[in-house]
Amino acid sequence: MTYFELDAVEPGMVVATDVEGGSGQILLRAGTRIDARHIRLLAAHAVKGLEIRTAACEAGAPDAAIDPARVEAAVDVLFRDTDTAHPFIQALMRVTRARMLQGNRIHERNDTER
């Protein structure tokens, strides 16, 4: 699976993980094939991006190496409306980067591994 910013999402793509709105409600379930209506819904709920199934994921192959520059750009988008100088936000950004660099392994973790 690969993280896509919302403006790069196109109809026909398949959601890899559940997409939640700001208050935690599920907007789209994993496995949903995206159409234009879904993209409008996500934009209305200020969703910045989502995980999309890739052809390699469908074939059972591991994802390609994750580009740290893309991760940094995605983190910048996710936290652009926050005070990035605040220590708590900096900690959240570090955790987000680490999890994005781990790729799909974070989605396979169960509660006993925390």
Please describe what this structure looks like.
This protein is of the alpha+beta class and 114 residues long. It folds into two domains: 57 residues, Molybdopterin biosynthesis moea protein, domain 2; 46 residues, no CATH class. The chain is 38% helix and 11% strand. The protein has five helices and four strands, in the order E-E-E-H-E-H-H-H-H. A two-stranded antiparallel sheet has the order 1-4. Strand 2 and strand 3 form a beta hairpin. The protein is globular and about 40 Å long. The C terminus is likely disordered.
> In terms of per-residue confidence, which ranges show pLDDT below 50 for 5 or more consecutive residues?
104-114
| Overall outline | globular
Global structural class: alpha+beta
Instruction: Provide the CATH architecture of the largest domain.
Output: Alpha-Beta Complex
Total number of domains: 2
Residues in β-strands, percent: 5-15%
Average per-residue pLDDT, rounded, comes to 80
Distance between the termini: 22 Å
The CATH superfamily of the largest domain is identified as: Molybdopterin biosynthesis moea protein, domain 2
- Computed CA radius of gyration, to the nearest angstrom: 14 Å
Read across the widest sheet, the strand sequence of neighbours is 1-4
CATH class categorisation of the largest domain: Alpha Beta
Number of strands: 4
Written as H for each helix and E for each strand, in order along the chain, the element string is EEEHEHHHH
Query: Into which percent range does the helicity of residues fall?
Result: 25-40%
Q: What is the count of helical runs?
A: 5
Main sheet overview: 2 strands, antiparallel
What CATH calls the topology of the largest domain is: Molybdopterin biosynthesis moea protein, domain 2
